[in-house]
Amino acid sequence: MPLMGIQTKSHILSVAFSKNSSEIVSGSDAHTVEIWDAATGLALQHLDGHTNEVNAVAFSSDGTSIVSGSDDKSVRVWDTSTGAELYQLNGHTDRVKSVAFSPDDTYIVSGSCDKSVRVWDASTGVELQQLNGHIDWVRCVAFSYDGTCIISSSDDKSIRIWDASIGTELQQLNGHTDRVNSIAFSHDGTHIVSGSHDKSVRIWDALTGVELQKLNGHTDFVNSVAFSYDGIHIVSCSDDKSVRLWNASTGAELQKFNGHIEFINSVAFSHDGIHIVSGSDDKSIRVWDALTGPKIQNLNGHTSWVRSVAFSPDSTCIISSADDESIKMWNVSTGEEMHTLNGHTHEIHSVAFSHDGTRIVSGSDDKSV
C-alpha cells in the first residue's frame, strides 16, 4: 500500500521532490502549487497566485525556493518555508511549459509557447535574458550539469544551446525533420542526444553544435532517449516496438532489443549502467542486459499501458506506473514484484524515486499525488 495518499481537487500536471527528499511540490490545473511533507503526506503550503493551469514546478537545489510556470504566462518564485510568493516573473506572452533552476540556484530558465526562452535572476526576479530564435513552441528547457549552458527544444524541429550567463545562442542544432520528442545532456555536458518524430536519434557536440551521428534504425517515432551515466552508451525506444542500444562515440547500433509487441513509451539506464528498463503499451516491463543484449526479466503484472519506468538510485529496484491505476515495485535481479501501490483511481502518468531512494512520488489523472 502507499506510504500516503496526497489528495487534491484537481488534475496534477507536474511533481518534483526537494533535493533532500523531505518535501514534494505539485502543480495542477486548479491554478495552484502545493507543498507536501513527503513522510506524512500532510499539506505544508498552499500557494495561490497563478490564474491558470500550472504546467511545471521545480525546487531549488538548497530546497528554500520553488519555481512554477503556468498557462497564465507567468513564472513565480515561492518561499518553501512560508509559502509566500517572492517574485512574479512577467514577460512571457503565452503559456509557460517548462522551468528549471540552475545547479547553483543563481538563475531560473523558462520556455514558453511564445517561442522564447527566458533567463531570470533567482534572487531578485529580474529578467536577465530573452533568448529568441525558436519559431514555434518551446516545450523543454534544461541547464547543463555545470550550469554554464541552457538547452531548449521546440516544435520548430530544432534544438538550441545558449550561454547561461549572457544569453548568447551558442549553437542551433538542425537536422531533425519533425518534432523533437526527447533531449538529454551527457553527464559531462559535452554531448546531447535527441529523439524525434522523424524516427531518428541524433548525437550532437554540445560545444560546436555539430551533428556527430545520425542513428538510423527505428522505423517509427522515437519517444525517449537517454545517456548512460558514464556517457559511453545511448538507449532509445520507439513506436516501432524496439529498444536500441548505441555506441555514443561511433553511433554504431550495438543491440536491438525485441520483445515488446506494442509502442514503447519509456526507457532508462540503471545508474550502474548494467541494465536497461523499458515500459510499453503491451502492459509489460522488460529488463535488458545493457552489455550483452539478452532480456533478463519480463515483468508482467500491469493490466494496461505502462507509461513510465525508473530505476532506484542504487539500481536494485524498478518502479513502473500504468493506466491500470497502479504503481509497481520490482526486484531487478529476480524480477519479483515486491509491492503494488494501489490508491490512485485513474491513469498514472509519471513516477520518480526520491534522491535518497527511500520514497516514490506519482501523479495521476485522479487529481492526486
Order of strands across the widest beta sheet?
1-2-3-4
**Averaged pLDDT, please?**
81
The count of strands amounts to 34
Looking at CATH, the homologous superfamily is YVTN repeat-like/Quinoprotein amine dehydrogenase
Distance between the termini: 14 Å
How many whole angstroms does the radius of gyration measure?
A: 20 Å
What is the domain total for the residues? 1
Query: β content, as a range?
Result: over 45%
Corresponding CATH architecture:
7 Propeller
Give the number of helices: 0
Shape: globular
Helical content band: under 10%
What is the CATH domain class?
Mainly Beta
Output the CATH topology.
Answer: Methylamine Dehydrogenase, Chain H
Low-confidence stretches: 1-7
Task: Note the main sheet.
Answer: 4 strands, antiparallel
* Helix/strand class: mainly beta
